Amino acid sequence: MGRHATRRPSATATVVALAAVLVAAAVAGPAGARAETPTVPALPDRVLGAPDPGALADDEAGRLVRRGRDLVTATYAHIGPAVADPARRYAGNNLACGNCHLHAGTKKFGLPIYGLFALFPQYSARAGAEITIEDRIDGCMTRSMNGRPLPADSPEMRAFVAYVRHLSDGYPPGRPVSGLGTGAMPELDRAADPERGRGLYVRACLDCHGRDGEGIRRGLPTTALGYMVPPLWGPDSFNDGAGMARLITAANFLHFNMPHGTDYLDPRLSVEDAWDLAAFMVSQPRPQRAGLDKDFPDLLAKPVDTPYGPYADGFPERQHKYGPFAPIRAEIARLRAARAGGSPR
After folding, report:
1. Which is the most buried residue in 46, 192, 234, 312, by most CB within 10 A?
2. Average pLDDT over the chain, rounded to whole?
3. CA distances, 305 to each of 152, 195, 312, 328 (Å)
């Protein structure tokens, strides 16, 4: 290029300049029109605009929310079975709540906890009664964490509730909240196959979760540093009364979140593989919770994939555990209609 050659603007500079012109035109509008405040663009669907607890003031309220986030991300270090104060040992395993509630409860279809606060109190089919947000948190403590309930007035419970409330800021009551739960992929018209799932586990999961589903500890067991990768079964995993021990929950969670780095817009496991892999996972041994026969007093409200009885529909436990679920749903619908006085068929 000669010394006096005209320098051409870079592509980036051109784009920036063009964007500035477009924004200015949008703000100014037609000639003679009053300038309008530009509209804030919508976030891409995979981006969640959850409030950042780190931006809160350093006051009592802000510290309580951050304490709640710490309890979600490092449960084992604060209320786990190896903490120094025996009175604070509420969790019965070394998991973190964030092992299931991904990204500290903010990942869509990763069992998020944002937007939930206004939904409580709510009726729980499992309890057969109305429950509070504190009751729901204790459900996680006694099932997924295989531990014991937190006292309602304990500092830990107040921190958990404050964090859920904080993540619910900006979600008006009564408005649907997108991304809750684990998603809903198509179901199989056959039973899920745990033996086929075993091979899928070796191929897709073993390197992280271990040959025996034991996960990867962050340090020595005596350091109470939890897991880099959580166990999927065995004595330090969730118990058989946890939601993740049910096939539909587990299969959707795997499909939309695993292997690590996956999200619901870019699943890596096929639908069929996710069902079979989940079947293998839920078939493995784990801690047993006493009193499961008391769950779901109304048996017709019991989820079709509940892997423990009693049942009202006449289908065996194995079909409730692995499917197919369509015949069970049809029979439950028939029984409900008969109970309501409708035609039995």
Report:
1. 192
2. 87
3. 31, 19, 13, 9
Phi, psi of 123 (to 5 degrees): -75, 135
Question: Nearest Cα to 292, choosing from 308, 305, 312, 304?
Answer: 308
Give the residue from 177, 174, 124, 132 showing the smallest Cα distance to 153: 132
Neighbouring residues of 193: CB distance < 8 A, sequence distance ≥ 6: 276, 279, 322
> Amino acid identity of 211?
R
Strands 122-124 and 129-131 come out as: antiparallel
Residue 124 backbone phi and psi in degrees, to 5:
-115, 120
CA distances from 72 to 22, 77, 146, 197 (A): 44, 10, 15, 30
Q: Which tokens hold the place of 283? A: 């078939």
Q: Which residue has the tokens 């009693």?
A: 310
Higher pLDDT, 182 or 27: 182
Q: What is the pLDDT of residue 48?
A: 64
In tens, the pLDDT along 322-332 reads 999 999 999 99
